[in-house]
Amino acid sequence: MKIAVIGTGAMGMLFGACLADGGEDVTMVTAGRRETEEAIRLHGIHMLWDEKDIYVKVRTAMAGELHDPFDLVILFTKAQDSSAVLEKCRGMIGGDTYLMTLQNGLGNVERTEKFVPRDHIICGALTMPGAVTGPGEIRTMGTDRKAYIGMADESDCALLHEVCGVMNACGLTAEIADDVYGAIWGKAALNSGFNPVSALTRLPQSRFCEVEDGERLVFDIMEETLGLAEKLGVNVDREAAFARARTIMVTHKGHFPSMAQDIMNGRRTEIDCLNGEIVRRARAAGYPVPRNETVCTLVRLLERNF
């Protein structure tokens, strides 16, 4: 397949490096700073994978520079930037192009279906921590890296199986989810608790348990999000979500989730597409989510420093 990865943050570079290193035809598309594109073009992607140093050469371009359709476009921009970036990249999207969104937050399918129909959208959730350590440089850790993917229209699809096979062959452990929206909401529940609390405290998620009520705060936010999912008719595995949360606190030593990384670097966060979207849907459903409302407001206020 001819693959484009749009977005050169942690997950974009992780996917681009693994796919290119596995022999796939990959182009990294930078939607932000030109210096990032130049660093990758000149030096490739440098990935610290546990104790291994991996350097991968890969083709690059800036958003808006390419006008030939790709077979698969993987979107890893910030969720709030998806529509604007895809509009710039329309030339890369043809009638047979599939879009894959594994971004954080809720509403990603709705944003991408403005550009391709649902039967051409692969969606899902990741359990792959990563952090940008410099232009073209990333670090990832942990033993539980996995992607859960499915079609946005919940159909079976030959290309979905092909993509899953390619990911696994390239070291990106993937599984076709029985209920992809349950997986998306399960990941959103985790992010809704960990991300704003880390952003507000500037503590890595492994340190929340140092304060008795720190862990409880994360779990209470997650409980609200999972309850809303059930209210909206989404099947979520509560036990798996909380088990995953406890694992993160033990195995992701020193890791700051993306929202905290954004705050510490003076960047706008994904709060509106995560806790903000949870609050919006909860209000429409008449379901109380007071802790989500509180952390959402606090992060929005914190962003006023930038």
Short key terms for the protein model shown above:
4-stranded mixed β-sheet; 2 domains; globular; alpha/beta; 306 residues; 8-stranded mixed β-sheet; N-(1-d-carboxylethyl)-l-norvaline Dehydrogenase, domain 2; Rossmann fold
Q: Which spans have pLDDT < 50 for at least 5 consecutive residues? A: none
Radius of gyration, taken over Cα atoms and rounded to an integer in Å: 18 Å
Distance between the amino and carboxyl termini: 41 Å
Portion of residues in beta strands equals 15-25%
Which class do the helix and strand fractions yield?
alpha/beta
What fold name goes in the CATH topology slot of the largest domain? Rossmann fold
Q: Could you describe the largest sheet, including whether it forms a barrel? A: 8 strands, mixed
The global form is globular
The total strand number stands at: 12
* CATH structural class of the largest domain: Alpha Beta
Number of domains: 2
**CATH architecture tag of the largest domain:** 3-Layer(aba) Sandwich
Total of DSSP H or I helical runs spanning 4+ residues: 11
What is the overall pLDDT average?
94
Strand order, sheet with most strands: 5-2-1-6-7-8-11-12
Order of helices and strands: EHEHEEEEHEHEEEEHEHHHHHH
The CATH homologous superfamily name of the largest domain equals: NAD(P)-binding Rossmann-like Domain
Helix fraction by DSSP (H/I, runs of at least 4): 40-55%
Topology overview:
Elements (H helix, E strand, L loop, with lengths): L1 E5 L3 H12 L3 E6 L3 H10 L1 E5 L2 E5 L2 E4 L9 E4 L6 H7 L9 E4 L6 H5 L8 E6 L3 E5 L2 E4 L6 E5 L6 H12 L4 E3 L3 H22 L10 H20 L6 H14 L6 H7 L10 H11 L4 H14 L3
Parallel strand pairs: 1-2, 1-6, 2-5, 3-10, 6-7, 7-8, 11-12
Antiparallel strand pairs: 3-4, 8-11, 9-10
Helix pairs in contact: 6-7, 6-8, 6-9, 6-11, 10-11
